[in-house]
């Protein structure tokens, strides 16, 4: 499995690029998982409190898993560490794991910059594979496919 972080500050284009790359990788026959850091403060949006899942959590369940119709939904009352989150993301045996965020964690990174100020704040990150200031989708897609296929 190949793992690649897409990192940068808010509104640098991380989600847009990850979405594009998921479509590209799937179109080329790869199994893809995505792990996203919710950096907007607070918990991600949860299901309605009347759902069974939320009722189980309210009663003290640490983890709830709902499966049906070919989909699995997982909720946990505590956030695992980064390694634990990666293990969850790898459960479906993806070929590629795209990680949006987690810039301080170890792993190959594509760094998206809005301006020079971003570079000054992020240039000391580890494992930077590519730095992008002005997005050219065709060039980025070509780079990703070469990077993925390099070791497969």
Continuous helix count: 5
Order of helices and strands: EHEHEEHEEHEH
> What would you report as the Rg, rounded to the nearest angstrom?
17 Å
Oligomer: single chain
Number of strands: 7
Strand arrangement within the widest β-sheet reads: 2-5-1-6-7
**Biggest sheet statistics:** 5 strands, parallel
Q: What would the principal axes of the Cα set say about the shape?
A: globular
Strand content: 15-25%
Helix content: 25-40%
Overall pLDDT metric? 92
- Output the structural class: alpha/beta
Low-confidence stretches: none
User: How far is the N terminus from the C terminus?
Assistant: 9 Å
Could you explain how this protein is built, in words?
The protein is an alpha/beta fold. It is built from five helices and seven strands. The chain has helices spanning 14-27, 52-58, 82-89, 116-122, 137-149; strands spanning 2-7, 32-36, 63-68, 71-76, 96-100, 109-112, 128-132. The strands form two sheets. It has a five-stranded parallel sheet with strand order 2-5-1-6-7, sandwiched between helices. Strands 3-4 form a two-stranded antiparallel ribbon. Helix 4 links the parallel strand 6 (109-112) and strand 7. Helix 1 packs across helix 5 (137-149). The chain is globular and about 50 Å long. The mean pLDDT is 92.
Give a brief outline of the structure:
With 152 residues, the chain is an alpha/beta fold.
